[in-house]
Sequence to fold (279 residues):
Amino acid sequence: MAHLGSNRYGKQHVRVLRKTVEGTKHSVTEVSADVLVEGTFDKSYLSDDNTQIVATDTVKNTIIALAHSHLGPCIEDFGLVLGRHFVSTHGHVDRVHIEIREKVWERMEVAGKPAPHSFQAAASGEPFTRMAVSRIGVEIESGVRGLHVLNSTNSAFCGFDHSEFTTLEDATDRIFSTLIQATWRPMSDDVDFKDARKRVMDAILKVFVENFSPSVQRTLFEMGEAALSAAPSISEIELRLPNKHYFTAKLDGFGIENDNLTFLPQNEPNGEIEAVVRR
Fold:
């Protein structure tokens, strides 16, 4: 006999942009939101009775309407508003699962002067937050994905384990490129999320720029260690650093000495290095 297990539903990829105006200066925040509700919806699965269903169109409209009054520069604050609205408005909704992704727009400059209402897409990765909001409390994490960075030197990889299938040669000076995905967890839901995000990202990028990298693994831990030190409001950080390989081009067959200046980008396969760094 079949039984209904865990279930949730809602609306995904609801996009909205909110503009704020201060005199002649405009600012914009654009997000894409997923909101899935969980609770007492058994009738809709087990019978023709739809009375428990909060329509997904209502979920979409709620996101847009609350964005008008609450969407600002901190996506975590907006996510908490959304979650608390659904559990307080709909008594049979027990838990709300939310992911919000931000499309970052940077203010343009013309002749060294900031433009009051003109923006360009940023190349600083995609900020996101995920949370589960219930009447008991909030589980929340924040992060960034898709931040593509490259060091043209100050990286090596030597002394690794060898087997009969090892062909990789030691590299004392190599290109280090990765697509950073970082996810951190705050101590509570009343921290300064915007400040924590800046502290974490500044710390991660400082390590990437300044520290010599003997391996991606070592750099990953140093990034996590620096993030925890810089942002006391977070308890742990998960980092994923795929190694986007750049192999030295073999030019000796053409009578050309490379001198470690010309490289061949290798998208796939790539190395994948992941770890969680905790206090």
In short: The longest helix spans residues 193-210. The helical segments are 42-46, 56-70, 75-89, 193-210, 216-230. The radius of gyration is 24 Å.
